[in-house]
Amino acid sequence: MLNSPLLQTALALALVASLASFVAPWERIARGWLTVIPAIDIVAVALMRSELVTVVPSAGMLSIFPILWLAYGFAWYAIFGAVAGAAFIAAFTFAAQGIVPTTALEWVNVITLPALIIGVAVVVNIAASRLRRSARLAADAQREQQRALREALDSQILTRDVLNTVNAAVAFYDATGELTMANELAKDFARRAGFQLDRPPFAGDRVLAADRATPVAPSDQIIPAALRGEELDERMEWVGPPGEQAAILASSRRITREDGRLLGNVIVAYDVSELAHAAEIREQFLRTVSHELRTPMTGIRGFLDLADDAVEPHQAKLREHLAIVRRRSDDLMDRIRELLSAGAASDPLRPRQTDLSALISEAIDSVASKAHERGHAIEQTGDWDVVWRIDAGRVRQAVRELLTNAVKFSAPGTPIGIAVHPARDEVRVAVTSRGPTIPLAERVRLFDRFYRTPYATANAIQGFGIGLTLVHDAITAHGGAVRADSADGVTTFEVTIPCG
Length: 500
Hints:
Strand order of the largest sheet: 2-1-6-5-4-3
Shape: rod-shaped
Largest sheet: 6 strands, antiparallel
Structural class: alpha+beta
Order of helices and strands: HHHHHEEHEHEEEHHEHEEHEEHHHEE
CATH architecture of the largest domain: 2-Layer Sandwich
Oligomer: single chain
Distance between the termini: 119 Å
CATH topology of the largest domain: Heat Shock Protein 90
Strand content: 15-25%
CATH superfamily of the largest domain: Histidine kinase-like ATPase, C-terminal domain
């Protein structure tokens, strides 16, 4: 039997197919050529079965290997090749013997093998298709995951470099209070203050308040306050050991997801040391200049009084000239007082129960002579029977500045109104005048120190641009607010002071 040419041919074909499957560079060959290997195997199995069917009836089962190759390795259309191969194997035995199946048993032998192989091929092909689809989906998911990972890494690198590039300290704490991001400047500020950003209590012993003298308690420092949920707006602190302190201006915000759940807290701080030092120098300059000017002006006013007493009754012209000098010296003294007041604007409040009507009356009396010179009548309205806990000196100064401002800018001969409106938890004082309308673009700058409107400059109206700044500082120090409205030639400044 081993000498049979068909069997020898079958074995040779099987050997060639096996060698080809290992040796051939299939990665460089078109996929369709892969079908050659199972086709050769099918021919080998058909030849082998025709010789061994009487000795080894199950030899035809060897066809399962090339059939599985076709069913597993190729798309659904490979099923037709598997069916054709199975039919070829079953029919070749009868063809080689030159006979045709006649009995039922012979037909069963012809049909059983193809049917069995077809069933196996279909199942294997379906499983292979699903496996390939799963593999594609897994590969797509892996590629998407890798792409997302690359983007996340790129975003992390970009965020880190941006944070280290901007001239601001930035730190982000998650909802549990763990530090997740911070740039080098934030770490430097923390080191100066005497703590580390990633270790509680996130506070140090080298932190002073804005006055550069009062130590800030650990629980009240920027990061602990932010982690408690407080939203800070430009809080100023000095951090660092003596001689190396830096002024920082910090803000914080709570970051939430779309569903409202807390994502974390972001804290941003800027080094404003140069600005703080410049402001300190400016304040020192203002105090020095005002004091240096006040001393000789006091002497000049004293000698004016002596000169006035020495003028004879018949020297009317000289008395008139002295009156002009006195008015100009009074104006200059008012400017000096403004400078002195600007230097004292940061002094702590000294609140006490104060009769607001008496306080406002004193402010009115202080501007009465100038108002009379310009023909202004000061009209009082509202409920003046008010006792409020305030710093009387600061509020009196604020009301006087508002009235002075109204006298300066009102049209001559027009009335000036002042109204008091007390409520349960606040009191409002409004000063109304008639004169040029203040545009919105100018109103937003009215309370800036040394700001003068174009109208004031063009009409040579005296002043340093400090008066309304003093009003703003005095009222906001009480926790109140100042508002300016101007339309159709009517301007109203309204201050609101909450219950002390």
